[in-house]
Every structure is written in structure tokens, then in C-alpha cells.
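Limitations
The C-alpha cells in this dataset are predictions for the assembled complex, not deposited experimental models. Users should treat interface geometry with appropriate caution, especially where small molecules or nucleic acid strands are included. An illustrative entry is reproduced here so readers can see what is and is not provided.
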Amino acid sequence: MTKNSAPTQKISFKQLERAQCGDSISLNVCLASLKYNSDGLIPAIAQQHDSGEVLMMAWMNQAAIEETLRTGQVCYWSRSRQDYWRKGEKSGNWQTLKSMKIDCDGDTLLLSVDQQGPACHTARRHCFYLVVDNNKVAINDAPMVDPDSLYK
Amino acid sequence: MTKNSAPTQKISFKQLERAQCGDSISLNVCLASLKYNSDGLIPAIAQQHDSGEVLMMAWMNQAAIEETLRTGQVCYWSRSRQDYWRKGEKSGNWQTLKSMKIDCDGDTLLLSVDQQGPACHTARRHCFYLVVDNNKVAINDAPMVDPDSLYK
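Predicted assembly:
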């Protein structure tokens, strides 16, 4: 916020489409301009930085984004608990931020992360363990550890 | 639908958490059980099958999912146009489905795809071309072709 608490300026993501590689805008202006949904949330995809594996998708509000950037530990907003969800706080399986990207129309985030242990609450490495196989959907991955041991 | 048009049975994704690798359920039951939002939509992440690059995130309804599986060409639901969005129909830059995965709580899809040319309407390969860099957000990628040539 500026000293006189004026609302943060906003931009249209449309304006950035023809910007040149290397051009930049203020982080505060960009975060204020994101297209949060009616609950004030934006989807964030977490991708393991070295393997490229897509681990999970969850939701953030602006404060969760700011905390994630400030601390370097990924913090989501839990829609089921209606509270901040500091990934790893209970399980010890932290998700460390490597970089954050924003998409062309400002309505999705892509987080490059270093995930310690399982990203999924089922103790699987990632959440996408159900795979469509013709007229069936099959379980495609096994837990890394006993799921009962995750949240003691 | 069954012959007497009974509603398709649904499952809770919670039930699948302890299923064994290789176990499966019916595709129809699974698609009917997905957690579509209040607009009947579910987010779908598209990842390039060989490079692992996350190309874009868009939304599907159940009919778009079924069409995508039937044709092997990715079909989203355009929230801005309120219509089916057959990726590549106007630009020629088709997105061919390699596999479809569903996450642990049935509210996100992960599509492994083969994207021809740019996935982004700005003519960039992917949509995540804005990268957070300290207190700035920088343009990180250039268009692959002249964006004006995409939708002739």
C-alpha cells in the first residue's frame, strides 16, 4: 500500500500480450490485478522443479501468494477448512518455492517447487493417481509411506 | 446411461484412497462423480507429454471431457464465449490427447497432450510467460509466430 493507502493500481493482462521479453511490471500491481474468483481465490499448479512432474493443484488468495513469496514455503488456502494451508506444516512434507509464474490472462499460477516426500494426502508422490484407461479409471500409483503415518 | 435411464451411480473419491494399484472403476461412474463447480466445470491442466512443460490450464464440462476422450482432440469449455472450445479449430494448433488423469479428490484433471505449435493465444508456446522476479513480474517468453497470423 502507498502511504496514503490509495488502492493499488491495476493493469489488464491484455496490455501485456504484446510486451517484449524482459519487460516488467510491479509485483504489487500484478497481484492486485489477478483474476481471483468470487471467493477471492486463484488456482495454483505445483510442478516439481527437476522432474517436471505435476504434483497437485490447489487454491491461493492474495495473502497466501504474498506469504509464499515472502517465506519461500508454499502456502495455499484450504477451501474445506477455510483456513491457510501451509503445505507440510502437519506432515513435515514441505513444498519449497523455486519460482512462480502467472498465465496470459492472470487467472492461474504455476509454481515450480521442491516437494519433500509425498505431495498427496494419500501419501502418494502426486495427486493425479487415477488414469483413464478406455471405459475404466485405474489406480496408477501406490503410497510412498503408510498414509496413517503422515498426520500424527 | 443404462437402458431404463436410471441416473449413473456415483462414488466418493475418498473410497478410492486405499484402493490398490491396478484396481479400477467404471469411467461413466467416475465422470459422473467428478466435483464440477457451480457452473458444471472442472479445471484441466495441459502438459506436453514429452517435455513435461505445463502449457495451459482451462475448464471442461462433462460433455467436453467425453468428446475429448472420444475424439482424442482436446475440447474445453470457453467461459468467455460460453461455448465448446475445440483447441486448434481456428488456429490449426491442435492439442492431441495422450492420456487423462484425475486427482485424489476428483476436482482437477491432468491432460498429457501433444501440442502442435503455440498453446497460448498470444502465440507463445505456453501461457505461463509472466515470471515473478523479486518485486517485479517479467515477460519471460516471446511469441513463436506473429500473433496476428494465428486466427485468420
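Some entries come with short summary sentences. For this one: The helical segments of chain B are 13-16, 27-33, 62-71.
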